[in-house]
Amino acid sequence: MTPPAIRLIIGLGNPGPQYETTRHNAGFWLADHLADDLKAGFSLDKAFSAWVAKGRFDGEAIIVAKPSTFMNRSGQAAGALMRFYKLLPEQVLVLHDELDLMPGQVKLKQGGGHAGHNGLRDIQAAFSSPDFWRLRIGIGHPRTLGLAQDVAAFVLNSPRKDELDGIVQVIDRCRAVAPALLRGEFQQATSQLHEANRA
């Protein structure tokens, strides 16, 4: 049986200009590009507590959203959107920063824990299910990058130039596999993404 294709994409980040360039907003960065690729513009929809962009792919409606709440309340928007559009968790893709992957690395996975990520934790609670898909965008960890910052300060600061270059490359790779995800071709998308991690 073909798995259901992605119909709702949620980028994670914090609202406000002071957070725009921070590592924790990598999910927002990718969401902006995916909306552009779908020729869809964001507008604030207070009913969903999110900026929402509506596009089409192969004749199907695709929603890209960025919660307007802070990261730890991301489930408010995600849950409202999933219920309104009558989607399964398996049709939702969450884009988020990942401490356990270095800049330049990315992983696609379905299900699993939240590994202390407050946005994922809140979405999992709102869905009553961990079965949504995640695109984990590597930002590195302060220890592995040789920084003395604690994790909270690290994610709320901007990446250094070499780290940013790696994150930008990942965003381009994610954009390249987005059509496969929107067709439900998860195996193809996974192998294409993970192959480049080894390159």
The total count of helices amounts to 6
Tell me the total number of β-strands: 7
Report the sheet-strand fraction: 15-25%
Helical residue percent? 25-40%
Biggest sheet features? 7 strands, mixed
Rough shape? globular
What is the typical, i.e. mean, pLDDT?
95
Describe this protein's structure.
The chain has a single domain, classed as 3-Layer(aba) Sandwich (Rossmann fold). It has 6 helices and 7 strands. The mean pLDDT is 95. It is α/β, with parallel strands linked by helices. Strand 2 (43-45) and strand 3 form a beta hairpin. Helix 1 crosses helix 5. The chain has helices at 26-37, 74-84, 118-127, 151-155, 161-182, 186-198, and strands at residues 8-11, 43-45, 50-57, 60-67, 92-98, 106-110, 133-138. It has a 7-stranded mixed beta sheet, sandwiched between helices.
